[in-house]
C-alpha cells in the first residue's frame, strides 16, 4: 500500500506547478483539476485493497512445528516437489551437491567420535582416517569437494569392522539419519558429474536457522507453509509466527524414543521431549482455534530400531510386543492423551522422505481440514 500512495503523491506533485502549456496554476484551479485524478486513483486503491482482502481470505497459514531433525524441512521440500517445480535450477542443484558432500564428511567425523564414545578401538584405522582427512583438505584447497578417490577411501572406512560396529549402535551416538543412505552409494555421489536427485535432496540435512515460507496452491486454497527451527534456541521465534495460523503441523521423530534428550531438557529421551512440546502447543491459548495435525514421522527408521531397542526400555508403561503396529499405536495414544479431550487432532504416521506417502497423507489431512473449515467459517 505505501507504494500505491507514493505513486499518487508523485503524480499530484508532477501536476502541481504548471499545466501542459507551462502556465502556473492557482490553488483552486489545481484542486479542480486534480479531483478526477485523485478520485480515479482512490478507486484504484480501493480495488487493490478489496483484491488483497479477497486473496488473504483464501490464504491458509500452516505452521510447521516439532523437535530438531523431526522432518519439518523435509516436508517443506516435499511440497516444493509435489506442488511446485521441485529443485531444478543449477544453483539449487549446486547448493545441494555441496551440502550432501559436507553431510558425508560430517558423518565421517560423527562415526569417529562415536567410536571413541562407545569405546571402539580405531588404532588400525588411523592411517586410513589420516589419508581421508589429508585428501579432503587438498580437494577443498583446490576448490572442490568430494571426488572418486575420496569416495573409494570413505567406502573402505565405512566397510571396516569398526565403523560397522559403531553404526550398529547409531542410536547411542550423534549421527545424521541418512548415514547408511550416503555411504552405500558413495561411488555415485562422489562422481565429478554428480547431480543430486530429488531423493538425494530429501535426504540432505541443513539445520534451519531462519524462518522459511513456501506458498503453493492446494485445491482452491493458497497454502502458506512456514518452517521454523526446531532447536531450543529457535523456539522463541515460534511465538512470532502464531498470528493468523489456521493449521499447525506438528512433526514427531518416532525414532527419538531411543535417543537421549539434550541435557538441557528435563525429559529423558527425545520422544518424551517432543511430547512435552506437543502438550504445550495443544493447550496454547493463542493456537486454540488452529487445526492441529500430528505427523508421527520416520516410521521407516522406527520400524528398524524396534528390532534393536525395546520401546519399554524408554517407556516403562508400555507392555505390548516390540512390533511396529502395537508400538506405533501406543505412541499415537500417548500424544493424543496429553492434549485436552476436546481438542480435535488429526494424527498420521509418515515417512517424510517418501514422496508418495507425503502426497497421500497431506491430501487426506488437508481435505479433512478444508471440510471442517468450510463448516466452521465458510472458507475454502
Ligand atoms: N529415513 C528417514 N529420514 C527422514 C525422515 N524424515 C526426515 N528424515 C531425515 O532426517 C533429517 C532431518 O530432517 P529435517 O527435515 O532437516 O528436520 P527438521 O530439523 O525438523 O527440519 C534429514 O536428513 C531427512 O532426510 C523419514 O521419515 N525417514
Ligand atoms: Mg529444518
Automatic annotation (TrEMBL):
Gene Ontology CC entries for this record: cytoplasm; heterotrimeric G-protein complex
Coiled coil start-end: 254-281
Binding site for Mg(2+): 73, 208
One function term, GO molecular function aspect: GTPase activity
GO biological process assignments: adenylate cyclase-modulating G protein-coupled receptor signaling pathway
Signal sequence bounds: none
Keyword field: Coiled coil, GTP-binding, Lipoprotein, Magnesium, Metal-binding, Myristate, Nucleotide-binding, Palmitate, Transducer
InterPro entries listed in its UniProt record: Gprotein_alpha_su, GproteinA_insert, P-loop_NTPase
Keyword Metal-binding: yes
PROSITE patterns (UniProt xref): G_ALPHA
Annotated binding of GTP, by residue: 177-178, 202-208, 227-231, 297-300, 352
Pfam families in UniProt: G-alpha (PF00503)
Subunit structure, interactors included: G proteins are composed of 3 units; alpha, beta and gamma. The alpha chain contains the guanine nucleotide binding site.
Cross-referenced PANTHER family: GTP-BINDING PROTEIN ALPHA SUBUNIT, GUANINE NUCLEOTIDE-BINDING PROTEIN ALPHA-14 SUBUNIT
Name by which UniProt lists this protein: Uncharacterized protein
Organism the protein comes from: Plectus sambesii
Amino acid at each position: 500500500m505505501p507504494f500505491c500512495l507514493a505513486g499518487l503523491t508523485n503524480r499530484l506533485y508532477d501536476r502541481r506547478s504548471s499545466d501542459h502549456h507551462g502556465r502556473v496554476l492557482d490553488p483552486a484551479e489545481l484542486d479542480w483539476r486534480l479531483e478526477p485524478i485523485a478520485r480515479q486513483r482512490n478507486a484504484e486503491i480501493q480495488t487493490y485493497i478489496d483484491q488483497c482482502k479477497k486473496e488473504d481470505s483464501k490464504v491458509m497459514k500452516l505452521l510447521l512445528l516439532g523437535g530438531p531433525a523431526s522432518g519439518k524441512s523435509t516436508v517443506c521440500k516435499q511440497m516444493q516437489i509435489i506442488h511446485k517445480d521441485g529443485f531444478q535450477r543449477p544453483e539449487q542443484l549446486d547448493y545441494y551437491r555441496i551440502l550432501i558432500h559436507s553431510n558425508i564428511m560430517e558423518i565421517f567425523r560423527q562415526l569417529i567420535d562415536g567410536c571413541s564414545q562407545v569405546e571402539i578401538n580405531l588404532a588400525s584405522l588411523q592411517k586410513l582416517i589420516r589419508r581421508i582427512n589429508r585428501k579432503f583438505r587438498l580437494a577443498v584447497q583446490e576448490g572442490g569437494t568430494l571426488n572418486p578417490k575420496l569416495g573409494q577411501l570413505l567406502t573402505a572406512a565405512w566397510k571396516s569392522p569398526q565403523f560397522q560396529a559403531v553404526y550398529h549402535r547409531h542410536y547411542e551416538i550423534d549421527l545424521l539419519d541418512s548415514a547408511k543412505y550416503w555411504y552405500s552409494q558413495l561411488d555415485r555421489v562422489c562422481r565429478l558429474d554428480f547431480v543430486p536427485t530429488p531423493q538425494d535432496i530429501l535426504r540432505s540435512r541443513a539445520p534451519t536457522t531462519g524462518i522459511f515460507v513456501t506458498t503453493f496452491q492446494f485445491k482452491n486454497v493458497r497454502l502458506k507453509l512456514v518452517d521454523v527451527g526446531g532447536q531450543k534456541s529457535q523456539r522463541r521465534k515460534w511465538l512470532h509466527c502464531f498470528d493468523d495460523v489456521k493449521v499447525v503441523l506438528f512433526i514427531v521423530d518416532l525414532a527419538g524414543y531411543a535417543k537421549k534428550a539434550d541435557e538441557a531438557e528435563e525429559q529423558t529421551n527425545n520422544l518424551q521431549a517432543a511430547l512435552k512440546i506437543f502438550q504445550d502447543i495443544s493447550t496454547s491459548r493463542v493456537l486454540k482455534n488452529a487445526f492441529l495435525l500430528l505427523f508421527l514421522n520416520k516410521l521407516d527408521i522406527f520400524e528398524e530400531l524396534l528390532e534393536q531397542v525395546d520401546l519399554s526400555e524408554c517407556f516403562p508403561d508400555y507392555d505390548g510386543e516390540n512390533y511396529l503396529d502395537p508400538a506405533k499405536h501406543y505412541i499415537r495414544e500417548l500424544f493424543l492423551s496429553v492434549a485436552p479431550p476436546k481438542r480435535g487432532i488429526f494424527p498420521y504416521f509418515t515417512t517424510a522422505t517418501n514422496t508418495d506417502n507425503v502426497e497421500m497423507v497431506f491430501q487426506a489431512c488437508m481435505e479433512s481440514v478444508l471440510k471442517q473449515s468450510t463448516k466452521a467459517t465458510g472458507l475454502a
